[in-house]
Design a protein that fits this description.
The complex is a heterodimer of chains A (about 575) and B (about 290). Chain A has about 575 residues and is mostly helical. Chain A is built from 19 helices and 8 strands. Classes of the chains: A mainly alpha (about 575), B mainly alpha (about 290).
């Protein structure tokens, strides 16, 4: 650190109090009534670490704010009613057509309310970004191990936010009552009806009678503007409070420990950064809303159960169960007059529940397998938990393949492929792909661990090729900068696994075996850590440095010589040039 | 009334005359023939096609079409019973004009579906081919521009035609061709092609003849006026501005999702990286925090 700029003494004149100013007076007024000073004193100086990946959740937060703002605007004109009206607005192609009030008011917002179409499109784009950024944030948290104790419950809250965000998106998708919305609701009706035994009762309860009825739009509206946003707000508040309470995780580095947070204070640095980021998220959403058409409801026309359009897809976050549905073979069973539609039930009712359960349980599963009960505030690089990283990549691969299946028709026409072949391929790929991804990622991580060790022990590759007097060639390595080496080396060693079956104490008495569950856990844990590369021991590091010094001595004769290959071409002077430094 | 009675009475006096039967038969024949000419579907090349044109068409047909469709357009079956090319007897001039005019025929190779490509023949040659195929058997003729044009209608009628056409389009066409006519997938590599930007004549002919996977929308099924309305609606979609901005290909939520991830999340992560890389420092030189 450059200390020359640090002041060596206090100012020469004694500090004097300035006269009262307006802001100070207002702050005092508020403090005396609300006790803000105590709360602010601590929190305004709260320190957050700096890293781009810590800002992904912020995208979700800010796009939620955009959703609230644009959503309030839309509620001022939207009529959540399935009452039939004749359209007389300014969109020529539909004038005189009978439609629901909900659809007519969507057209009105799009064509007759000033700024309405922009608000509608911004609302929709923000919704897409909201769910997408939650998922990207989730992946960051998982890959860096930020979900570990004490943050497991915040992970659970985050997963609930993801589920609620998805449901909120689906209800919003259904509200305009255009052909696409109606097709979505019709599909949802089918999913509910696929529930064994109670399906048709549930469908009648949902629609207040036979599909489509008159109740579904008003009901979805209440859910969309009141119920789910309320839950989202409450959970977001809980998520943020826990974030403040736990303090933010940080990457390991010099001076960073499990007991501190190194970074910049909330005020002024993070207030500016986060506040600025809000405006950027708002701006990107506004640009998308202004430039790119999303859900052109006027082209879909009003919903009519007898119509459908090619390219009827849900929004992307519902795309993966839709994909599973599209590639599922048509299996049905009949028992005692009851039809079980496996072809709908498995991909839509069972698969998402299973996937979300796995997601919710991941932190607890990880803790159970590793047996790690310590608090973690320092993040782990993805490569240092190869099996964990590979597990998520496998899940991502499965998700991605289901996603592709959800767009199989669009892929078929755009790439001139056969929709049947795509479907057959994906039926196999959703099982095989994740396994391949798991193995490849795991080995990749382990290779990266080896590379880290290589760098710690032998330094980094300089790209300078040396020729020895004997004529042999070698690449010159230089030691890593101390901070970098520290960051790489400050990771945990994997626990030494003992064979629990045959552990004996000093007197030869075998340790009590924990039963089958313990045996399973032991086996899984062995696999979890299998083949991981441990960081070098101090002795190895010492030897590595020793070796490097020896090399340096050998190479000393060329030290300080120009080595960029331009010695003889006369382009520039090279007398002062040393070897390239990192 | 009296006048009518009197003239009927005068006629009635001759009803048993020797020529009465003949006169009635002649009258009946005239009426039947006349009515048939008025109401029967227009026959391809009945008037326009000259012998010379048909002969020219046959020459072209023998060179470019006969390999699959047979030397007399009777179609050819392969040994295992598949069709190499279907019989063209009775497909009419409209089918030829569509298939050859859009470049689909002659086919480059057999496959799941023939794609549209640049025309191989010029307009005269297409007309000659159409005349020849029409001479093989009666079938739908090439529609006249007045069949699908809304130019002759008043503004109000035109608006009505567009609105009506939109409803017919959403009911009959979108299931395969998509809500904007961007096209959709069909089983086994087949596809409903994009119909945005297709000439009205070819849309009309496709409706009339049902090429490839497409069902045939005969005049009984979709009246000529209704066909015209659909074409008017499609033209109105092209004429109207893109209210929401760039259309992303008119493919629906898949393209929108892709844009949200690539443009939206992509740019926001880029900005996040930028914000995290720029922070409060007294000097530009990086200080390890």
């Amino acid at each position: 650190m450059d200390t020359s700029k640090v002041a060596k003494s206090n100012a020469t004149t004694a500090a004097t109090t300035k006269g009262p100013n307006r802001a100070g007076a207002a702050a005092t007024w508020a403090d005396e009534r609300l006790g803000l000073a105590t709360a602010m004193k601590k929190n305004l100086r709260k320190v957050f670490p700096d890293h781009w990946s810590f800002m992904l959740g912020e995208i979700a937060l800010w796009s939620f704010v955009v959703l609230l703002l644009t959503g309030v605007f839309l509620t001022l004109w939207f009529t959540p009613s399935m009452g039939e009206v004749q359209y007389n607005g300014s969109y020529d192609q539909l004038r005189g057509i009978h439609m629901s009030e909900a659809y007519a008011s969507s057209l009105r917002i799009s064509f007759d309310v000033r700024g309405g179409l922009l608000m509608r499109q911004m609302h929709h784009w923000a919704a897409m970004l909201f769910v997408a950024s939650m998922m990207v944030h989730l992946l960051r948290v998982f890959f860096t191990g930020a979900f570990r104790k004490p943050r497991e419950l915040n992970w659970v809250i985050g997963c609930l936010l993801l589920i609620l965000g998805t449901l909120e998106g689906f209800t919003g998708y259904s509200l305009p009552d255009d052909l696409l919305s109606g097709t979505g609701i019709r599909a949802a009706d089918g999913f509910v009806k696929a529930t064994p035994v109670v399906g048709s009762y549930m469908s009648f309860f949902m629609f207040g009678g036979e599909f489509p009825g008159e109740s579904i739009i008003p009901r979805l509206y209440t859910v969309h503007v009141l119920l789910i946003p309320g839950l989202l707000l409450a959970l977001i508040a809980a998520h943020m409070l826990l974030l403040v309470y736990h303090k933010h995780t940080q990457w390991p580095g010099p001076g960073r420990t499990e007991r501190n947070v190194v970074g910049y204070p909330m005020l002024p640095v993070y207030a500016a950064k986060a506040g600025g980021f809000f405006f950027i998220v708002f701006g990107v959403t506004a640009l998308l809303g202004a430039l790119l058409t999303i859900n052109p409801v006027w082209k879909y026309g009003p919903y009519d159960p007898s119509k459908v359009t090619a390219g009827s897809q849900p929004d992307w976050y519902m795309g993966w169960p839709d994909g599973a549905l599209r590639i599922m073979p048509g299996l049905e069973s009949h028992f005692w007059g009851i039809t079980i539609s496996w072809n709908v039930m498995l991909p839509i009712l069972v698969l998402p529940v299973v996937m979300f359960t796995i997601l919710l349980l991941l932190p607890f599963l990880d803790a159970w397998i590793t047996g790690d009960k310590r608090d973690h505030h320092l993040l782990e690089r993805p490569r240092n938990a190869p099996t964990r990283t590979a597990l998520m990549v496998a899940l991502m691969t499965m998700y991605g393949l289901f996603w592709i299946a959800g767009g199989n028709d669009i892929i078929a026409i755009q790439l001139h492929a056969s929709i049947n072949q795509i479907t057959y391929f994906l039926r196999v790929a959703v099982f095989v792909g994740p396994v391949i991804a798991f193995v490849v990622t795991r080995r990749w991580c382990i290779s990266l661990q080896r590379k880290d060790n290589e760098m710690l022990l032998h330094g980094y590759e300089t790209g300078v090729i040396m020729r020895s007097p004997e004529g042999g060639y070698s690449e010159k390595h230089l030691p890593l900068p101390a901070t970098r080496a520290y960051a790489i080396a400050s990771r945990d060693r994997d626990p030494v696994l003992e064979d629990h079956q045959h552990t004996q104490d000093a007197n030869g008495v075998p340790a009590p075996s924990g039963g089958r569950l313990q045996a399973l856990r032991h086996r899984v844990r062995t696999l979890w850590y299998a083949d991981n590369v441990q960081k070098p021991s101090p002795a190895e590091l010492e030897e590595g440095h020793h070796h490097a010094e020896h090399e340096h001595e050998l190479q000393a004769s060329v030290e300080g010589q120009a080595a960029d290959g331009h010695q003889f071409d006369g382009h520039h002077l090279v007398e002062d040039e040393g070897l390239r430094h990192h | 009334m009296r006048l009518l009675n009197r003239s009927a009475g005068r006629l009635s006096r001759h009803r048993r005359g020797p020529l009465a039967g003949l006169a009635v038969v002649l009258l009946g024949l005239l009426m039947t023939g006349g009515l048939y000419t008025v109401f029967s579907p227009a026959q391809a090349g009945s008037a326009a096609a000259s012998e010379e044109q048909i002969a020219q068409g046959r020459e072209l047909f023998l060179v470019s079409c006969a390999f699959c469709h047979g030397q007399n357009g009777e179609g050819i079956r392969t040994q295992n019973g598949n069709q190499l090319g279907p019989s063209l007897v009775g497909v009419g001039a409209a089918a030829v004009d569509f298939q050859v005019g859009t470049g689909r025929m002659p086919m480059a190779r057999p496959g799941a579906q023939v794609p549209r490509k640049p025309q191989t023949f010029n307009d005269d040659e297409i007309a000659a081919l159409a005349a020849y195929v029409a001479s093989l058997g009666p079938g739908p003729a090439i529609p006249d521009e007045s069949d699908y044009s809304v130019d002759g209608l008043s503004d109000e009628e035109r608006q009505q035609a567009i609105t009506n056409g939109g409803q017919i389009f959403l009911t009959n066409c979108t299931a395969c061709h998509n809500f904007e006519g961007s096209g959709g997938a069909m089983p086994r590599g087949g596809f409903a092609p994009q119909i945005r930007g297709v000439e009205p004549r070819y849309i009309y002919e496709a409706l009339l003849t049902g090429p490839q996977n497409m069902p045939n929308f005969s005049n009984g099924n979709l009246s000529p006026d209704e066909k015209r309305d659909v074409i008017a609606y499609l033209a109105s979609l092209e004429d109207m501005p893109n209210y929401g901005g760039f259309g992303l290909g008119g493919l629906g939520p898949v393209a929108e999702g892709l844009a949200a991830w690539v443009l939206g999340i992509g740019s926001l992560i880029g900005v996040a990286v930028w914000i995290a890389a720029h922070t409060t420092r007294s000097t530009k030189k990086k200080v390890e925090a």
